[in-house]
Design brief:
Blueprint (H helix, E strand, L loop, with lengths): L4 H10 L4 E5 L3 H14 L3 E5 L1 H7 L1 H14 L5 E8 L2 H9 L4 E4 L13 H17 L3 E6 L24 H4 L3 H11 L3 E4 L21 H10 L4 E4 L7 H9 L12 H8 L3 E6 L1 H17 L6 H22 L14 H10 L9
Helix pairs in contact: 2-13, 5-6, 8-9, 10-12, 12-13
Length: 354
């Protein structure tokens, strides 16, 4: 059963847990996530980037999500556009059945050039009005995703800032966040605090100098009723790196966002946690293992089945660690028409506290 991001995160906030948002590109990933959700009785956020939509095709993704929802009718499922770069990208996502969109106006439409505050707030407000009229949810982003170590934003699916960024760009300002939420009416706010896309987030175990969790806490203090989002939040587990390298990979030592820090964020208003690299790494390691240990194997299913199982195990762990487990059966999703009525009446307006 389909659910909007707003309704799911409202419930998560009421019950003090976070929801992992897993990126998908194909059937095997979708099945892995839904099997994990079924095992743990967890609501689900599946999200697709522009790159994923181009890879799989909008019509294929539409039917995949519909099929997954029908296979697991007891699991509330939010389909989310990740890092939308324009009103058109977000509008076409909704046309294909997405129940939530992200308008990432922190970068201009090219997905590489850091944008001004006025551009970001202006385009995000337009997408919010369009999405809310349909009953769908919107996530915005303030601040530019990137590393406090390097000052750069790694690209994922062609999305990421070019050049070196200032600390002011890399850390969301709490006062500006209040203004942004008020001016845009976003349902969730992604903030910048030193995380980046991809596997190579940190060259050492992150501390307060390169992972600014205090920014989340400061924003939550000013916006206690706004749902916060952590992007670039894969943990890049050491054991998955070791499997990948044991079977022919060449990944240099790297560090992701520790699960303990994500749990700290959840205690300070983080309700959505984006995870992609961990899923890719789990699957890639399993595929490499088959390729190395069964060199005569050419049946693709023999590669994809253990890969999907490895991703499923990772998803189970995240559902349990973030407190999502056990809540699927307690949520009754509302139709988009009802959500649209609530937006129109003002009952779903963002709550601002200075």
């Amino acid at each position: 059963m389909m659910i909007t991001l707003r309704q799911l995160l409202d419930y998560a906030a009421e019950h003090d847990f976070g929801v992992p948002a897993f990126n998908i590109n194909n059937m095997e990933q979708g099945l892995a996530i839904m099997r994990a959700a079924d095992r743990t009785n967890s609501p689900v956020i599946l999200q697709a980037s522009r790159g994923a939509r181009a890879y799989a095709g909008d019509l294929i993704l539409q039917h995949l999500i519909k099929g997954l929802a029908e296979m697991y009718p007891h699991i509330p499922l939010c389909m989310h556009q990740d890092h939308g770069n324009s009103l058109t990208t977000c509008e076409t996502a909704l046309d294909y059945g997405f129940t939530s969109v992200m308008m990432d106006g922190s970068l201009e439409e090219d997905g590489a050039t850091p944008a001004s505050y006025d551009y970001n707030a202006g385009i995000t407000a337009k997408v919010a009005a369009m999405a809310h009229a349909r009953g769908a949810s919107i996530e915005g982003e303030l601040g530019v995703l990137g590393s406090l170590e390097t000052g750069q934003g790694d690209k994922e699916d062609g999305h990421g800032a070019d050049g070196v960024l200032s600390e002011e760009q890399l850390l969301t300002d709490p006062d500006e966040a209040v203004r942004f939420v008020k001016e845009t009416s976003v349902d969730a706010l992604a903030i910048a605090m030193g995380t980046s896309h991809g596997a190579y987030k940190f060259t050492r175990q992150p501390d307060g100098d390169i992972l600014a969790m205090h920014v989340i806490e400061a924003i939550h203090a000013k916006l206690p009723n706004t749902h916060l989002v952590m992007h670039g939040s894969s943990s890049v587990p050491q054991e998955l790196q070791e499997i990948f390298n044991e079977f022919g990979g060449e990944m240099k030592q790297t560090y992701g966002v520790p699960l303990a820090e994500i749990e700290r964020g959840i205690r300070s208003g983080v309700r959505k946690v984006n995870i992609d690299t961990d899923c890719r790494l789990a699957m890639a390691g399993a595929i490499r293992k088959v390729a190395q240990t069964s060199k005569s194997e050419f049946d693709l299913r023999k590669f994809m089945k253990p890969a999907s199982e490895a991703m499923e195990a990772l998803c189970v762990d995240r559902f349990e660690r973030f407190g999502t487990a056990g809540h699927a059966g307690k949520i009754a999703p509302l139709p988009l028409s009802e959500m649209a009525t609530r937006y129109q009446s003002g009952s779903l307006a963002p709550s601002i506290h200075n």
